[in-house]
Amino acid sequence: MSDYRGHLWGGVVFFVGLVGAVVALSKKGGSPEWLAVFWGWKVLVLFGIALLMALWPDVDTDSKGQRLFYRIFLAADILLIAGKLHQLAAILGLLAMIPIVGRHRGWTHTIWAAVLVTLPFFVLPMYFTGQLTWVGLPYFLAALVGYGSHLVLDRTFW
After folding, report:
1. Residue 111: CB partners within 8 Å, gap ≥ 6?
2. Residue 131, CA distances (Å) to 37, 94, 110, 126, 138 in order
3. pLDDT tens, position by position, 80-111
4. Backbone φ and ψ of 30, nearest 5°
5. Which residues, including other chains, have CB under 8 Å from residue 103's CB and lie 6 or more apart?
6. Tens of pLDDT along 34-79?
7. Long-range contacts made by residues 114-122, C-beta under 8 angstroms, separation at least 24?
């Protein structure tokens, strides 16, 4: 079991492993387009996603991660309301309440939750563009690696 610092470091280590795997894959040739996101400044976005998702499973308990995410949710909800996107604000508000209904180390500490919570990173670009695209895959992988690092450190991945 780790505190938030341990989970952040776990996210760093796992993300470096992901980047190493991507570098190895690109050296084998035939680099798909979506690998380009791992080069240049966009890798910092992926890194940030991995670190945030390394904290996500503890959103179900009073933690630094919970406080961070609920501040993000509040800011996003205020922006949605200001933009008169009331239905989206209501959906975000409902989804934001789900983790605090469960117990600590409950559903947020499962493999299925790791996939389900991170899947929007992959699916939403397809939804918004209306076409099959791999553009979200790097973001999904970064999120999944970050989330997975948390489960491994808490030994709750079975």
Report:
1. 151, 157
2. 19, 28, 30, 5, 17
3. 999 998 998 998 888 888 877 877 778 889 99
4. 65, 45
5. 60
6. 778 888 899 999 999 999 999 998 888 888 888 898 899 899 999 9
7. 114/57, 114/144, 114/147, 114/148, 114/151, 115/144, 117/53, 117/56, 117/143, 117/147, 118/53, 118/143, 118/144, 118/147, 121/49
pTM, 2 dp = 0.84
Q: Which one-letter amino acid corresponds to residue 86?
A: H
Q: Is the pLDDT of residue 144 over 90?
A: yes
Report the alpha-carbon distance of residue 146 to residue 52 in Å, rounded. 7
Domain layout of the chain by residue ranges: 4-60+104-154
Sequence-ordered strand ranges (E) for the chain: none
